Amino acid sequence: MKLQKLVKFILFNFIAFALVSCAASGLVVSQLDNSGQPKHLGSAFPVSWEPNPRPIADGNDGQLLIRTSESIKLLYAAHDSKGKQNLFMSGSKNIGDSFSKAKRVNSVEGEVSAHGENGPKLKQGSGRGMFAAWIGNRDIKFARSMNFGRSFNPSIRVNDDIGKASQSFFNMEVAPDGNIFITWLDGRDKKTNLPGSSSIYMARSVDQGKSFGKNIKISGDICPCCRPALAFGDNGEMFVSWRHVFEDHERIIVVASSLDRGKTWSKPVKVSDKGWKINGCAHSGPAMKYVGGKLFVTWYTGKNDKANLKFAYSLDKGKSFLKEKNIQGSVLDANHPNMTILGNEAWVIFQGRDPNLEGGWSRDKAWLLKISSNGNTSKPSALPVAGGGVFYPQLYKGNGGRVYAVWTDLGEGGSRVMLCRGRISS
Hints:
globular; mainly beta; 1 helix; 5% helix
């Protein structure tokens, strides 16, 4: 009996030591959570965040642009005393310790419409070029700066329709060859689309934003308030993802691809077999990146009366997708994912509620997880909070191991753009 007890004691301690060693070394141990979904546990998320996020602008929907020198440009929207919105840009030369006095970007005063899913975009061009896009008077507006953001040229209208159709819920990316692509949801095809749906259009600039070419229709029957996502492959491929409306109001995330720089597009491919049946719009579009030969897509769904963040990926450049899985772990009300490439990984930041606080009804936090090049996901890790809620968080890669998270805080005194800086520790 004593020998048996001794053997059991040795085995127990050996197993415990092995589990601790795996966690300490960063190896992933797979378990099942309460829903039966795989849950990956590992070492603490490798970012050391400053403990107190702080406001850097009175406004909403902040976008950062970080240069090699770590100088930072901030684009954001703000209301004036009359309730009209404008876009402003300020800058920091001390890694975000302070920001300069803001200057207006939009040419037509008070024309801007920016709210979360429909927020402005800021992208880096080649050399001194910086590109801003926004919704102005129901049109897609674009302006460029060729002097590091000190001033912007008068804005131009990107959509080429004639009439009063509404254009909104857009995305903008700069391709590896320097071409600028903007894709958006467009109301010009109401007569041919399913009731209550939009079309998705795209325009390309080949001259660093001096002009944009003819608008190209990618598809109709689009969920009208979920912004699309854009990604680029290694050999000139382009991918666009959106929430498509099928029969019986079933909404499914799809991906279309182009091999000729956006001139023609494939038929949309479903990312999941079944969608979310709802006669309405979720105001939550997908996030998508091409990482190491794989196309990663993540999105929000309320299917089966459960709020989940889904993830799926393709090994054949969007022709098919492996089975989706939940990635939010135990986080409640997870929504609005944003994806950033760091090395050979995709990092996903999203908002959600901590299940251990206030019965799961505390204000939203920002959460971060990693997706490795082979599609494995880490456990979500919460960022520090500043007292207010987190809305539409964004993550930006700096240099020297620095990362920056920004979000909108909707407090009693109005909206504020919040900044939280971190350093990658491993």
